[in-house]
Amino acid sequence: MNSENFMKWLTEKFVKNVSAKSVLVLDNASYHNVPVQASPTSAWKKADMQKWLMERGIFFEQKCTKAELYGIIKVHKPVHKIYKIDQILAESNIPVLRLPPYHPELNPIEKIWALVKNHVAAYNITFKLDDVRKLAEAKFEAVTVQQWQNICSHVEKIEVEYMKREYIVDEVEDLIISINGEESDESDFFLSSDEEQVDEKEVQGGSSSSNLADLGCELLT
Which residues does the UniProt record annotate as the domain Tc1-like transposase DDE (predicted)? Predict the structure, then answer.
């Protein structure tokens, strides 16, 4: 998957078929977050950094090193990037919600994909793309409202638990034990826990991690 194919799916399939009052939930895949205008990085050439600054009327001395130029750029780079996807969907009044990085457990669609993948794996005997498409589409149609509700409820419980832990961390941040002049912050104790597991009965299927766009775009194009 790349940004070009994803944008094609977004404009030709998603926008034209999505129902009113919908929200697009995205993870942090790079092709979801292509900025409208690229911001300089430390890997940019010195000449390109100078050009970026001059185009914005930002003063710098010609003798500045590349590191010094990038220091100036960091001060003036936009804090909040504008992404191409957000611009396109704004025209259709579709808000975009981005999940926290590295938290697939907060995305209910991951569990739905697990159900679909298990179904395809169990009944795919021809290994032909057309047959895989039919199996996947059939399983998507078979997912019940109750299954969605169960999965979403489970995700909400995880969210609440994370918020509780965040409050605990805030409360103990100032609790520092000092021994022989050394400081030890015990907040890590509250952060360690086993990964949340979903009851298989809740979703009627196994758990798996999959990327929505990778298979979704392939099936819908």
Answer: 1-122
